[in-house]
């Protein structure tokens, strides 16, 4: 069975098993010109509640969030063989319509028959899967953009525009994102943009700004990469506004540029570090970064309402940390007033990470002044001793070899300075955590559609892909595009002479090269790029509509099915 037939057969089976849920049926969704998908990474519903109370407490005139009028349901988010997923497979579901494994970036999962939630096809393992972003760009001429606060090859932005079975393979993911010709990219990761990839961008008409806020703000070009921070950007509350933009500004900038495309656009905006703060059990980072994300939602919704041709879909990829408003150690917490629950919390002006950097950058004699200014209290003797015994505290008066957990309150002690700060912050609240990892509860769904075609009720993350595709009239098209653009080289070049040249020892990367010869013609195919070299000297370029993906697990290049036409 060839790739196209195999794909369509499996698609038919999956369609039977995963029918659209309540609300707007896919067939009734009116297509729009623009789609904005907004993902607050790792946001459990309790985070929304705590953030809302924090905003309402500090700004009594603002009891509501920007997302409130558009809340319409929940999402059951999972990976292919487990109810609890990480960002890579869960956002992959949104982008591709297929379940995927932990760590997989828009790539077909390896079959796990005893545990797979839906049937999987073992023959398709590791195949790159076309995303909504790629489909909109390739078939409809849409401009595509990504906004985020993590580093750009991180799981969620990568899920939109790259393919890998290992989310950590940045050397494989970053060039795919660059060569996917995204119109606008704004986020973190200056150190991860290689000279070669930057040269590709500039030679193809992109403006590239690195840690240059003024440059981003004054850039007239519609094609732009603007990156801030060596890797991730700062948490919003820790951010220097003269050095890094807010998520709201990044969103407005991206929309302004993308909306100049007459064919419309697809934009994904991620509140990346809500998830990071959740992993760290840092309630300040979680709440304040969610509020920053909500302000970005406000900007997107403002544009959509005025534009009349834009849909906005807002949904986390999974929960994280099991945070709760109310915890056993706070006796009678259910009777505490809003002042008792939120006054102390509202005084924190830095995240746990921000406090760690602040005290490590100041002499020990300044510690109490730092906490008075940025937290509204001084450390007790017990808390001060716990700080002094943190192994990562550079300015501690206690010699490193004498630091110990003995005699330190267990809830405060941590070798990590950031963890100590997170524990300290949490100790001043009535919030609790069950874990420092992802959780499996359903997450919220919010949506705006100019004609009211919104998904209502409970959906799986796979069903949300059906809705996103319907917004662009792409129902059933992603599988066709996958067959067209990501066919195995063994099928594409069957009957031709080809050879995979392993990477050169000590070379600049670990990419192999596929050489295909026929008569007097030759193709030199490097992975993770949209450029194929042809001609006897390999100096002629063929520009592809998609990137070539190499998978070492099966030693296969996935590339356009019609690439062999070059030899005709």
- Would you tell me the overall average pLDDT? 93
Strand content: 15-25%
Uncertain residue segments: 3-23
Largest sheet: 10 strands, mixed
Assign the CATH superfamily of the largest domain: Alkaline Phosphatase, subunit A
| Total separate domains | 3
Structural class by SSE content: alpha/beta
CATH architecture name of the largest domain? 3-Layer(aba) Sandwich
Distance between the termini: 25 Å
Q: Report the principal-axis shape.
A: globular
Radius of gyration: 25 Å
Number of helices: 19
> How are the strands of the largest sheet arranged?
5-6-4-3-7-1-8-13-2-14
How much helix, percentage-wise, in residues? 25-40%
Which fold name corresponds to the CATH topology of the largest domain? Answer: Alkaline Phosphatase, subunit A
CATH class of the largest domain: Alpha Beta
> In total, how many beta strands?
22
Describe, in plain words, how this protein is organized in 3D.
With 568 residues, the protein is an alpha/beta fold. It has 3 domains: 3-323 and 436-485, Alkaline Phosphatase, subunit A (3-Layer(aba) Sandwich); 345-432, no CATH class; 488-567, Copper Amine Oxidase, Chain A, domain 1, CATH 3.30.457. Helices cover 34% and strands 17% of the residues. The chain has 19 helices and 22 strands. It has a 10-stranded mixed β-sheet with strand order 5-6-4-3-7-1-8-13-2-14, sandwiched between helices. It has a 5-stranded antiparallel β-sheet with strand order 16-17-18-19-20, with no helix packed on it. The protein has a 3-stranded antiparallel β-sheet with strand order 15-22-21. A hairpin with a 5-residue loop joins strand 18 and strand 19 (531-534). Helix 9 packs parallel to helix 11 (283-307). It starts with a helix and ends in a 9-residue tail after the last strand. Mean pLDDT is 93; it is low at 3-23.
